[in-house]
Amino acid sequence: MVRQRTLASALLRAGLFAILILFALYYLMPLFVMIATSLKSLEEIRSGSLLAMPRDVTFEPWAKAWTSACVGVQCDGLRPYILNSVVMVIPAVAISTALGALNGFALTKFRFRGSGTIFALLLLGCFIPFQVVLLPMARMLGLMGLAGTVPGLVLVHVVYGIAFTTLFFRNFFVGVSDSIVHAAKIDGAGFFGIFFRVMLPMSLPAIVVTVIWQFTQIWNDFLFGVAFTASVANPVTVALNNLVASSTGVKEYNVDMAAAIIAGLPTLLVYIFAGKYFIRGLSAGAVKG
Amino acid sequence: MTAESRARAAEAGRRSWWAWVDDRLPRIVVAPSFAASVVFVYGFIAWTIYISFTRSGILPRYEIDGLHQYERLWDTPRWYVALENLFVFGGLFIVGCLAIGVTLAILLDQRIRTEGLIRTIYLYPMALSFIVTGTVWKWILNPGLGIEQLVQGWGFTGFEFDWLVDRDMAIYTVVIAGVWQSSGFVMALFLAGLRSIDDEIFKAAAIDGASLPRIYATIVLPAIRPVFLSALVVLAHLAIKSFDLVIALTGGGPGVATDLPATFMYAMAFQRSELGLAAASAVIMLITIFAIIIPYLYSELRGGRP
Question: Which of B44, B103, B114, B247 could be cross-linked to A136 through a Cys-Cys bond (beta carbons 3.0 to 4.6 Å apart)?
Fold first, then answer.
């Protein structure tokens, strides 16, 4: 009887693992296809199958995707656009995170009349479909002389990132005891004194979560990039889309795949090395736009 | 007044000025973000709503013209295609992600030793841009060289799979790629919910002779109902705003067969120069999302569970 039970439960566990592994293969398959295809020659792609390992590994598609593939009419590969994305993402993440930290701190530890309303107003901004601000934003960027430029894109990402960074830091600071602030006030520390010397050092986890979240969101953005930048200022997501869509003549699937990996690698690496924080951000910011 | 007393007065003035500023520092610090929100969120929404009531074409015009654009919108066949696609895509996307997410969460909750690794694998698509996801799936679903050739290579020579270029089936390819990208995230949401359930419940129910599937169906899943609600809201929100995935995977095609409200709005705004029509469609998207989000936020902030 006991033996039967253990046999049944062992079988059940084997079945359980089989299903879990099957799903793991399902999620990994596109990654494998991407890598394998990027290492094959076009000839091998046509004659072989999607899931076959590359026989003669070639790095030519990678070199081409990086330096010479055509994005629209320009044939310089993804490199300049990766640079655009980097130049866009660093200030956008830094500024929106800094503002979020200050807001979150002020709205929780130095409450004033109306601070609750202000937070609610900011928060609602997390949920709007960005389509509803595309047209006026395009005009505003034009008026400011920032249309089609990377700085314009930085401004857009900062403006629409604040709601979210504020939410992150507010949620973090709400959990920090008020008595710490009171003690620091009695010691004569002011707003910025408490912020920089007491709060910031202890909010490292919130900073990491926010930076990772913002980095992923901004790096992966496509809508703002495609709506507000002209070709030379395109972020890498837009360039990737153009590269895949605009290959004239022979479709080079291997170059497409290499380009897709290049565009996806930065956020993928962040996920692999800081997955814990990534997931924390995901669940905290689940409903964001 | 002596020089000394004047200096003292100035000093006092400076100090009171500084005290005044110091008092308002929290407000001053929040002010720029608040102003940005008022202008770039609420002001812009107001502008878009206003424009949706005008005859704006290539350029905005500011004479109010009633519901003209909305009438046009609801007379546009392409808008109906977009809405129908939203229902098909949204419905299947939500159901697919929930089904896979809940199943995987329950399976992973059975004290799996390699849980960390498996979880990492299930969730990595969430780190990718929808453009990358779309690019990969476009290749996998490629009629001719993708799955079709793979299955034919296995001996099923008559196998055909051309949904990507089939008007009636293309929207389902968007579902396939979307579920692949987002279902792991739903799994993570539910796993966190399951972890919040007391182990004692399992023990007590097991002593009563309840089987594990029964415990999940009758006790555990009802207990994490709020997670269902959050997941539903997140997924609906994602579905309504879906834009990148469609652009990268099908480009909205064949023709306009996979248009969604977001791609419709973009096409009207930036390709057709129909500002008024674009604004009207954006306003409808906003209303739809707020109809979902505001009751949800309200119930969340009230802290009450329905």
Answer: B44
Mutate to test the interface with B, among A29, A71, A135, A288 (most CBs of B within 10 A): A135
Binned at pLDDT 50, 70 and 90, residue B92 comes out as very high
Average pLDDT over residues A268-274: 89
- Cβ distance A136 to B47 less than 8 Å, yes or no, reads yes
B285 touches chain A (CB under 8 A): yes
Token pair for residue A156? Answer: 């857009």
Q: Give this prediction's pTM.
A: 0.89
Note whether A13 and A128 are same-domain residues: no
- Please report, as a single letter, which amino acid is at residue A251: K
How long, in residues, is chain A?
Answer: 289
Q: Which of B48, B60, B145 sits opposite A133 (nearest CB)?
A: B48
Same-domain status, A30 and A98:
no
Residues A140 and A276 in one domain: yes
Residues in chain B: 306
Which of A96, A118, A89, A91 lies closest to A215 in space, CA to CA?
A: A89
- Answer whether residue A5 shows pLDDT above 70: no
Does the CB of B151 have a partner CB in chain A at under 8 Å?
A: no
Structure confidence by residue, pLDDT tens digits, B182-199? 999 899 889 888 888 888
Q: Can you give the three-state secondary structure of chain A, one letter per residue?
A: CHHHHHHHHHHHHHHHHHHHHHHHHHHHHHHHHHHHHHCCCHHHHHHCCCCCCCCCCCCHHHHHHHHHCCECCECCCCHHHHHHHHHHHHHHHHHHHHHHHHHHHHHHHCCCCCHHHHHHHHHHCCCCCCHHHHHHHHHHHHHCCCCECHHHHHHHHHHHHHHHHHHHHHHHHHCCCHHHHHHHHHCCCCHHHHHHHHHHHHCHHHHHHHHHHHHHHHHHCCHHHHHHECHHHCCHHHHHHHHHHHCCCCCCHHHHHHHHHHHHHHHHHHHHHCHHHHHHHHHHCCCCC
pLDDT in tens, A137-180: 999 999 999 888 999 999 999 999 999 899 889 888 888 888 88
**DSSP bridge pairs for A71:** A74
| B64 DSSP β-pair partners | B54
B157 DSSP assignment: T
Count of domains in chain A?
2
Structure tokens belonging to residue B113: 């030793």
Q: Decide if B122 touches A, using CB distance below 8 A.
A: yes
What is the extent of the structural domain holding A90?
Answer: 79-284
pLDDT on residue B162:
81
Interface of A with B in 218-257 (CB under 8 A): 219-223, 226-227, 237-238, 240-241, 244-245, 253, 256-257
Rounded Cα distance between A58 and A43, Å, is 12
Query: What domains are defined for chain B?
Result: 1-52 (no CATH), 69-301 (1.10.3720.10)
Residues A268 and A174 in one domain: yes
Query: Is A33 an interface residue toward B (CB < 8 Å)?
Result: yes
Residue A2, pLDDT above cutoff 80: no
